[in-house]
Specification:
Elements lengths: L1 H7 L5 E2 H8 L3 H13 L3 E4 L3 E5 L7 H7 L5 E7 L2 H7 L9 E7 L17 E10 L8 H15 L5 E4 L3 E4 L2 E11 L6 E10 L25 H22 L3 H10 L6 E5 L4 E9 L5 E5 L6 E3 L5 E4 L3
Parallel strand pairs: 4-5
Antiparallel strand pairs: 1-3, 2-3, 5-6, 6-10, 7-8, 8-9, 9-10, 11-12, 11-15, 12-13, 13-14
Helix pairs in contact: 6-7, 6-8
Length: 315
């Protein structure tokens, strides 16, 4: 099915005769693949003898993106297993800030290995390469990226966007975007990272595979320009990363996080492998650790992103 999507990814009409020849499939098998893709929410215009893919939003514009994001290299893959994986496999050819974007991702990864649903041209799906000096602490990095994304969305006119510790973006309390930071193992004297981002812009109506309340940006930005929005997001992320490189999680950033934190001051549950701890969420410390005011503790409890999950406490 990936090969079929790749052929149809330009949005042009293709005859069944051409598709069956290219894919070496019988017409019945081709129709079966189209049915499966339709069940996933991908739309097609199908006539008696041809088929055309209808993208959810405007297609990625390589010329516009490459020009606007210079000097960084921009790789666009209509269909890919994972943008993170693509960069990991081509790391020796990359410079800091180079990025990969896709229309459709077949094996996108979320936190703790969860799959990330990917409509065709309905998200901002991207990964970028970044590096730091080897002694630099990257604790709190996903928080920096999250704040940058929310700032870019607000600049674009989106209301109701907020951050959820440690790596989610919410729209009116529902998941809008996720961030995945992976350390890349390459010996170049630097700390090398691949950062993957998936933002729901306009999802298909069939969303049975999403296991939590979700949101799409078109709810608050019905006329969003996908390519321009991606540029704004990337530029704001890189700006925030440069600040992080010099200042870390400083007081200014912690104040900004608090302003954007959906759960700040709320009763929450911290779920660990062994127990659930209830308390009031009190933002982050200088390491990006979550702070919890617990009923039975005088000091704030602190948690890092790798060990726990944050949930609103049921009333």
């Amino acid at each position: 099915m990936s090969k079929l999507l790749e052929i149809l990814s330009d949005g042009e009409s293709n005859s069944f005769k051409k598709l069956t020849a290219l894919l070496q499939l019988e017409t019945k098998a081709l129709q079966h693949e189209l049915n499966i893709l339709q069940q996933q929410g991908i739309e097609f215009e199908i006539t008696q003898d041809s088929v055309r893919l209808i993208p959810q939003l405007e297609l990625l514009d390589f010329t516009f993106l490459a020009k606007s994001l210079k000097p960084y290299q921009v790789f666009i893959k209509p269909v890919i297993d994972s943008t993170n994986q693509y960069l990991l496999e081509h790391l020796t050819q990359l410079n800091k800030g180079d990025l990969c974007l896709a229309e459709y991702q077949t094996a996108g990864r979320g936190r703790r290995g969860r799959q990330w649903l990917s409509p065709f041209a309905g998200q901002a799906i991207l990964s970028f390469y970044w590096s730091f000096e080897p002694k630099k602490s990257i604790e709190g990095l996903s928080l920096v990226i999250g704040v940058a994304i929310v700032e870019a969305l607000q600049q674009a006119g989106a209301d109701g966007v907020s951050v959820k510790w440690p790596n989610d973006i919410l729209l009116n309390g529902r998941k809008l975007a996720g961030i995945l930071v992976e350390i890349a193992n390459i010996k170049n004297g630097l700390l090398n990272l691949i950062v993957g981002i998936g933002i729901n812009l306009s999802l298909p109506k069939l969303t049975d595979h999403i296991d939590q309340p979700w949101a799409e940006l078109c709810e608050v930005l019905p006329n969003l320009e996908r390519n321009q929005l991606i540029i704004q997001i990337i530029k704001q992320i890189y700006h925030r990363l440069e600040q992080f490189e010099h200042n870390g999680i400083n007081a200014e950033f912690r104040q900004k996080w608090q302003e954007l934190d959906y759960f700040f001051g709320e009763a929450v549950n911290i779920i660990t492998e062994k127990q659930t701890i209830s308390g009031i969420e009190r933002g982050i410390d200088e390491y990006g650790y979550l702070q919890l005011e617990s009923n039975d503790k005088e000091e704030l409890l602190r948690f890092n992103g790798g060990e726990v999950s944050l949930r609103k406490k049921s009333t």
